[in-house]
């Protein structure tokens, strides 16, 4: 059983979708993949040779050009989809499972460019990471920063966003700052955004940089600390979608926490703010401000306000986090 050059030509055209196939091309395939000397001499492709060809890189569905970066990476950061991880530290379920630094190693090796750090006061004045109000275990903040420093740019040289949910006291916030500055050093991008620009810098300009996404003190704050709304996903999007579109919905009193100036100053072009409505954002949101959307709300915007949502994402970064109904850690 074998294919001659004409049989192979028909297969390449009809099944592989190749255009302008010639006998020369068929012979090239035979000479490259046919294991027997007789087959190569007579221009036959045996079953083994055919198998070799089908399992070779020449038949991969994956475009080999995409093994390296093939897109234009000089556009504003908001023009790209970003490979993101939610509750990166959880390696099992979202309520009782263990927290482990291997979650960060795995995410970073897979090329995630946005990871999450849920930080709370820990024992011995060392901040810890875990999901508050759950039975998940804790890991030391400093060890996660070490992992980020080691693996942050192994899979990709493009910027890594650290989504920092800060629930710490002022005292332990200062410890967080000390660890980040000492371990991460000049990898931290802290340059003040220019009011003359209209868009975020490009991934190309931000290579090797860590962007801290968190709350930031207002510019008129002159003290060493001030208060901001709590960076809590349960409070981040208190919204509902009504018959006439998206309307804000107040759910109780928004909790406020104290934020030290040193931690605030680590936030540059990913300042967390709360979303109100599209027209408000178009008129007053700064390009360096980022809103978080529950996936249910984001889905409704995409279906009911697609034009506004697309235009919003051209100008601003938008972080979409999973519904609380997702209890596994598959993402």
Structure description:
The protein is elongated and about 85 Å long. The protein is 31% helix and 18% strand. It has twelve helices and 14 strands. 30% of the residues are buried. The chain has helices at 5-14, 23-33, 37-42, 47-54, 102-109, 141-151, 170-184, 233-236, 261-264, 278-284, 295-304, 306-315; strands at residues 2-3, 45-46, 114-120, 128-129, 139-140, 160-166, 210-214, 225-229, 239-242, 245-248, 256-260, 267-272, 289-294, 318-321. The chain folds into two domains: 2-61, Recoverin, domain 1; 67-321, TIM Barrel (Alpha-Beta Barrel), CATH 3.20.20.190. An eight-stranded mixed sheet has the order 5-4-3-6-7-12-13-14. The two termini are 47 Å apart. With 331 residues, the protein is of the alpha/beta class. Its main location: cytoplasm. It is found in: Cytoplasm. It is an enzyme of class 3 (hydrolase).
Break the fold down into its secondary structure elements and pairings.
Elements: E1 2-3, H1 5-14, H2 23-33, H3 37-42, E2 45-46, H4 47-54, H5 102-109, E3 114-120, E4 128-129, E5 139-140, H6 141-151, E6 160-166, H7 170-184, E7 210-214, E8 225-229, H8 233-236, E9 239-242, E10 245-248, E11 256-260, H9 261-264, E12 267-272, H10 278-284, E13 289-294, H11 295-304, H12 306-315, E14 318-321
Parallel strand pairs: 3-6, 6-7, 7-12, 12-13, 13-14
Antiparallel strand pairs: 1-2, 3-4, 4-5, 8-11, 9-10
Helix pairs in contact: 1-2, 2-4, 5-6, 6-7, 11-12
Subcellular location: Cytoplasm
Enzyme class: hydrolase
GO cellular component, one term: cytoplasm
